[in-house]
Specification:
Length: 307
């Protein structure tokens, strides 16, 4: 890592040392959502003597407000959902003037990159036990403009795929909906270049990903040089998004060696901007409107419960 360009990062804000009051908020529309898993989590937390309140979201965006307005007696927010739901919780938590509660994950969702990255358990009783054991790690975030993100912001082909996924198909066949979108879009050559400005240097590429995370699309390794519990933002760029190049990139992602491909760069960055006429962008797996807002590490560091 180029330490010269890495700024100093603060540590996580202090959280309660003991789990006493848990608020669970679950997204019933997340891929793989099961009431039974939720019930098992609550039952095990009850056995362990923890006060647990449960809410289901009713619409997109609600978790931002719930996380922002949590009672100060809540020491742990458990998000039942995928990366999109966790992203919403994070956006609310960083907005709280007081120190936020610890975050824990009941992994549902289609890809759940955060769960893969942290090797989180999926069994409800183990999650409950980890919430009580309270092994805390820092959760470093990024932001694009004033929008916080959990994992990454990207532009170019992979963002076009996120925009192109059919939500109904995603609910029916999960990750395969992304594969369908990749095949549909890989042969189109009408996408614009991404113009990247990274710490003052400007260049073009076809895919640009500014990431706080190591994983991508589930357990694939985008970069071995960072992770959500490690400070520092990385920029991964890909120069070629023709079908054969994408195939090679997919294989190298699987092997954790993407940066060994020619035309791929992976560097530490402090401040990045993406631009380009009609360039598509995504944040944590959800499409966003194009913005040339600066992408950088978020000044607030949350606390996440790990196994
Ligand atoms: N009750 C709800 N109805 C409709 N949409 C919701 C509701 N609650 C949350 N959402 C939205 O659903 C989006 C996707 O949810 P989530 O990330 O949990 O599941 P997923 O898309 O299956 O998983 P992943 O993000 O890991 O692919 C979230 O970004 C959130 O805005």
């Amino acid at each position: 890592m180029n330490t010269e360009t890495v700024p100093a990062f603060g540590g996580p804000e202090p959280v309660a040392p003991v789990t006493r009051h848990v608020q669970v908020v679950a997204n019933p529309t997340a891929g793989g959502f099961r009431f039974q898993t939720l019930d098992r989590l609550v039952a095990r937390l009850d056995d362990l003597g923890v006060r647990t309140d449960v809410r289901l979201t009713r619409q997109a965006g609600e978790l931002v407000e719930i996380a922002r307005g949590l009672s100060p007696t809540v020491d742990t927010l458990v998000v039942g959902g995928g990366d999109g739901s966790i992203n919403e919780a994070v956006r609310g938590l960083v907005d709280r003037p007081a120190a936020p509660p610890a975050l824990a994950i009941l992994p549902f969702g289609t890809a759940n990159v955060l769960a893969a990255e942290l090797s989180l358990p999926f069994a409800a009783h183990r999650i409950a036990e980890s919430i009580v054991a309270r092994k805390i790690a820092p959760l470093y975030l990024g932001r694009i403009g004033d929008r916080p993100f959990l994992l990454m912001a990207s532009a170019g082909f992979d963002a076009a795929v996120v925009h192109g996924v059919d939500p109904k198909l995603k609910r029916r066949i999960g990750k395969l909906a992304y594969v369908a979108a990749i095949f549909r879009l890989a042969f189109r050559r009408d996408r614009p270049d991404v113009i990247v400005t990274a710490d003052g240097e400007t260049f073009t590429c076809r895919i640009a990903v500014a990431t706080t995370a190591r994983c991508y699309g589930g357990p694939l390794t985008l970069t071995p040089h960072t992770g959500v519990t490690v400070p520092g933002l990385r920029l991964v760029t890909v120069d070629d998004d023709r079908p054969l190049a994408l195939l090679k990139a997919g294989v190298m992602l699987g092997l954790g060696r993407l940066a060994r491909l020619s035309g791929v760069t992976d560097r530490a960055v402090v401040k990045v901007r993406f631009a380009g006429a009609d360039v598509e962008m995504q944040v944590d797996g959800d499409p966003i409107a194009p913005t040339n807002g600066s992408i950088e590490a978020h000044p607030r560091v949350l606390s996440i419960i790990t196994a």
